[in-house]
Every structure is written in C-alpha cells, then in structure tokens.
Amino acid sequence: MKNGFWILRISETLSTTANKMLISIFIWFSISYVSSPDEASSIYATYFLSKIVFGTILSPLGDRFEKRKLIFYANSLALVGFFIAVYMINQKNIYVPLFYAIVIFLGCCDAIYPPLANAILPDIVEKKNLDLAYQYTFFLQSIGSLIGISVGIISLDMLGLYVAVVLATTLSIVSQLILLFLNVAKEKPIIRSESLTYMREIKESFILTYKYKSEFYWNLAASLANFIVAPIISIAIPFFVSHILMKDGGYVVFYEVCISFGVILGALYVQKKLIYIGVKKMTLVKSSFSFMGISILLLALFDNYIVWGGALLFLGLSIIVCNICVESVRSIAIPKQYRSRLQTIHILTILSSTPLGFLLMGNWIESYSLQSLLFAFGLILLVVSQFIIHIPKMEHLLSMEEDELEGAYASLFCLPNEADKSINLKET
C-alpha cells in the first residue's frame, strides 16, 4: 500500500476520532450529568442533519475541484468549531446557539471528508489491492469513531470537561498537519459537451443514483440499517449503562471496545477468511443483515452486561463484513467521473434517516422502554435481510471479477460512461 493511502487514512482517522470525541463529550454530559436523553438525541439529530444538508449542497465540488484541498478546508472548519468550544468552556459561558453551531461545523466536515477520501482511493491504490484498501478503510473509520466515543466519555469522567475538549482539539490539529503531506496527482478537469449549472449537477447526481438501481436500493437498505444501528451505539449504550445498569462511563467504554473488537476481527480476519474458503459476497451481505438483527434482539431480551458485550461484538463484526463486501465493489463500479458525487449521495442517503432514528430513540426511551424499541429494530433487520438478494443486479455485481468492475454500473444499466457526455435527465 502506497504512503498516500496511509497519510490519508491516518489523517481521516484522527479527524473522525476528534469529532466523535467532542460529540460524545456533549452526549455523555447530557445523559449522565444532566439526565436528559432527549437533549442528547437533539444534539445527534442536529449533527446528522447538518451532514445531510451540507453533503447535498457540496456534493458536486469533488468532481469540480481538487479533492485534497476540499478535505483540508473541511477539516479547517471543524477546527474552528473546536477552538470555539475550548473558548466557551474556558470562559464557563456556554452560549446555546454557538454550541449547536459547533455541532453543525463538525457535521459539515464529516459530510465532506469520508466520501472524498473514498473517492480518491481508486486513484492512489492499485485495483488488485482495493479489497485490502477497503478492509483497512472501514476498519480505521469504524475504529476512529468508536475510539472517539470511548475516549470522549472517559476523558470527561476522569479529566473534566475543559481538558477533554482540549484533548479532542489537539487530535484535530494533528490530523490537519498530517494532511499537509498528502500528495495526490492533480486531476484533469472533466469537460462535458453541455455546461451544467451547479444545482443541475446536484439534481443529476440524485437522478443517476436512481438509474443505477443497485446503488439506489443498496442505499435504501444501508439507510435503514443506519437508522437502527447509529442510535443504538450512540444513545442506547450510554442510556443502558447510566439508567439500567446504574454504572459509570467505564462500562460504556467496555461496550465500545466490544464493538471495536468485532470490527477488527471482521475486517482483518473473518471477511477475508470467508471469501478465501469460497463463501459468496452476496451470502455474506445477507447473513450480515441477519446477524445484525439477531444481535439487536439479544440486546432487547437480556439486561445482562456480558450478553450485551457479546451481542455488540457480533453487531460490529456483521457491519464491517457487510461494508467491505459491498463498498469494495461499488467504489469501482461507479464511473470515475461521477465517483465523488455518487459517494457523497451514498453517504447522504445512509445518513438521511439518522436524525429521525435519534429523535425516535430519545422520545421512545422517555415515554416507553428501550427494550421494546430494540426488539422492533431487531425484527426489522431480520425481515430486510430476506430482501437483500432481490436488489437489481446486486448478486451479479458482487460476483464480478476485479478487471470487469471498472465503471460497471454504466454497462449494467445501459447508461453513458464517457466523461464528455452529460446524462440525459429524462427517465429511461
């Protein structure tokens, strides 16, 4: 793997860790210190809503300008949020609109960085190494997020609010400095026969996603999974520890470590081993959804902290196996000239349901019980797992060889793959 890959991924991992640290500090403070799960849900809903809005507005930029510079600017915006947070807490004067502005800044950064970093991968990694590159990518992205949550909670409990936020700010600064060493070959501008307006490019991106049926239906399935899983990791675990087990933040970290271990195990061993012994990628994707549902049902049926640890480990393992199988394929199948935008639309679609998931969980916990919602979530994923195989062309796509995958969406769905052609916006 080339140095550019590791520079990009280490910088992204530190950025993700820092951002999730700050968010988790706010969340754990709201749940454990203020006893307000609905406030915690509102923070997360704002964060993900900002990712959706800014991701949609900024999605064409990756195909217009240099991706490395855009990532640098996004990270800079997050840094502004960190400095504001440090200043406010140091002054012991938390101004609520400014507080939510910080959350929005972090959401904007996270809306830009991952999709652009993923879109760069095929340009800095050889095709034969892309599977391995995505194994490391999803491993590092997941670990960065989970470590950020864990360290944020522990640092708040042990070091206090101010020191915890300063620590997160330091990681963000280091991420930005590492990014300065990233060297990506300058991309040639894509010239089309028809000049497109900025807003039309956004519209074109959504239409193209819909016309690539595998992409469209996979986005919907992944969005539903994220609607369920994200609130469990970020709200259900802290609530279970604080209000059901009646324990401190160390137990939250234990559960995050369980998920992290599942992610590590899935990314570095299980997925590769299962592919090696001949298990089809389609079978792995379908089974992963089933295991996600079973894991969440175990969370609903048992209050035992050991059962929760085991269930969360299998949840993390199932998520990462599923992601690697699909993302290593679709990242190449997207025609190169549309990769940045379609990667952004992909992430936006997944995130579109997340604010609703957080708001639902926060309000449901306040009014009913955590277990009843988890039970419903587990059943939903079990049902969805039976429909994954019916996504158009998905099974064929996942069975294609590496040398057949380049721009495969265009040929599979009979759409143009040439960079000098604009997409016909009329329905086909």
Automatic annotation (TrEMBL):
Membrane topology label: Multi-pass membrane protein
Compartments reported by the entry: Cell membrane
UniProt keyword annotation of Magnesium present: no
Residue spans crossing the bilayer: 42-58, 70-89, 95-113, 133-154, 160-182, 216-240, 252-270, 282-300, 306-326, 347-365, 371-391
Record-linked Pfam families: MFS_1 (PF07690)
A single GO cellular-component term on record: plasma membrane
GO molecular function, one term: transmembrane transporter activity
Keywords: Cell membrane, Membrane, Transmembrane, Transmembrane helix
PANTHER family: INTEGRAL MEMBRANE EFFLUX PROTEIN-RELATED, MAJOR FACILITATOR SUPERFAMILY ASSOCIATED DOMAIN-CONTAINING PROTEIN
Protein's UniProt name: MFS transporter
